[in-house]
Amino acid sequence: MDFDPWNPAFVADPYPAYEALRARGRVIRYEPTGQWLVPHHADVSALLRDRRLGRTYLHRFSHEEFGRTPPPAEHEPFHTLNDQGMLDLEDPAHARVRRLVAKAFTPRTVERLAPAVTRMAQELVAGFVADGGGDLLTAIAEPLPVAVIAELLGIPGPDRPLLRPWSADICGMFELNPGEEVARRAVRASVEFSAYLRGLIAERRKDPGTDLISALIAAHDSEDGRLSEQEMISTCVLLLNAGHEATVNTTTNGWWTLLRHPDELAALRADPTMLSTAVDELMRYDTPLQMFERWVLDDIEVGGTVVPRGSEVALLFGSANRDPASFERPDTLDLRRTDNPHLSFGAGIHYCLGAPLARVELAASFGALLADSTPPLRLVREPQWREGYVIRGLRELVVAF
Question: Helices 212-222 and 93-104: crossing angle, nearest 10°?
Answer without folding.
Answer: 130
